[in-house]
């Protein structure tokens, strides 16, 4: 069964850092683009970043460019999001999703990040 | 940047038809995907490539895309369809790609 499980969320002070992880199972991880999508409290979905199967292609949203870095370890079937210089407006539930041009067909349950002093 | 516009809310009585629109400049030149998000849950893909239903999605769900508007249609609405719905496109240029989500539409079943 295809499954994604995020971890690493928590409470962090403004300016701090956090690293999110996403463990994948049930599919050939290295064959697929993966994305991070976030959802601020009471708000809609916001795409953050995606990475190709090999890791050679990465695109980020302007809102996180230069602060967040997506990476993957295909040997470990894992996706990561390194978040630096965190701001209050980065407070959100962060989802990883198996992505393709046919849509984001598998989502994790999400991990919550709260940026507050 | 490309913008997708959805109505904040749509309502429908049980067994009626609900139509959720997604507006964008020449949106019919893009493939539109739709997601359903029930309260407290992760999104679920309910429509792919404008009108393709993923496995497990009821036939009551259909999609179309023409001109500047894409539409997700839910026939014979049920209480369990009450959720937020989001449209999404990939915007690709010669040197960059980005993903755009609409603002979301809350479907209320009366």
Q: Total strand count of chain A, please?
A: 11
- The SS-based structural class of chain B is mainly beta
Largest sheet of chain A: 7 strands, mixed
- What's the number of helices of chain A? 0
Tell me the Rg of chain A in angstroms: 13 Å
Hey, roughly how much beta strand do the residues of chain B contain? Answer: over 45%
* Low-pLDDT sequence parts of chain B: none
Show unreliable segments of chain A: none
Morphology call of chain A: globular
Pairing-aware structural class of the strands and helices of chain A?
A: mainly beta
Mean pLDDT of chain B: 96
Helicity level of chain B: under 10%
**Rg calculated over all Cα atoms of chain B:** 14 Å
Tally of DSSP helical segments of chain B: 0
Your description of this structure?
The complex is a heterodimer of chains A (117) and B (110). Chain A is mainly β. Chain A has strands at residues 3-7, 10-12, 18-25, 33-39, 45-51, 58-60, 68-73, 78-83, 92-100, 103-107, 111-115. In chain A, the strands form two sheets. In chain A, strands 2, 4, 5, 6, 9, 10 and 11 form a seven-stranded mixed sheet that branches. A four-stranded antiparallel sheet of chain A has the order 1-3-8-7, with no helix packed on it. In chain B, strands 1, 3, 4, 7, 8 and 9 form a six-stranded mixed sheet that branches. A three-stranded antiparallel sheet of chain B has the order 2-6-5, with no helix packed on it. The model of chain B has no long low-confidence stretch (mean pLDDT 96). Classes of the chains: A mainly beta (117), B mainly beta (110). Chain A binds chain B through residues 35, 37, 44-47, 50, 59, 61, 95, 99, 101-105, 107-110, and chain B through 31, 33, 35, 37, 42-45, 48-49, 52, 54, 84, 86, 88, 90, 96-104.
